[in-house]
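Tutorial, part two.
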Amino acid sequence: MLVLKRKQNEKIRIGSDIVVNIISVSDHQVKIGIDAPDDVKILREEIYEKLKIHAVESSQQSKEINIKELSSLDLNKINKKNQ
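Running the prediction step on this input gives:
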């Protein structure tokens, strides 16, 4: 991890197309602005973690539904129709 000290109105550049602007600094808070291409997703960490948990839960529910649906199928009926 790179740790940098910056003052208000100073910038940090990430690659050639992302710029982090230090907007203001107070006792316990730093306000930043981020200029990045539209295809770069910028999320607060707590939002990212919630989305990640939601995606995992959705995936697990989808698997459970598929297993339940498959177990309720009468494969003999399907095989007879195909013969």
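The first strand starts at residue 11 and ends at 14. In part three we will examine how such features are distributed along the chain.
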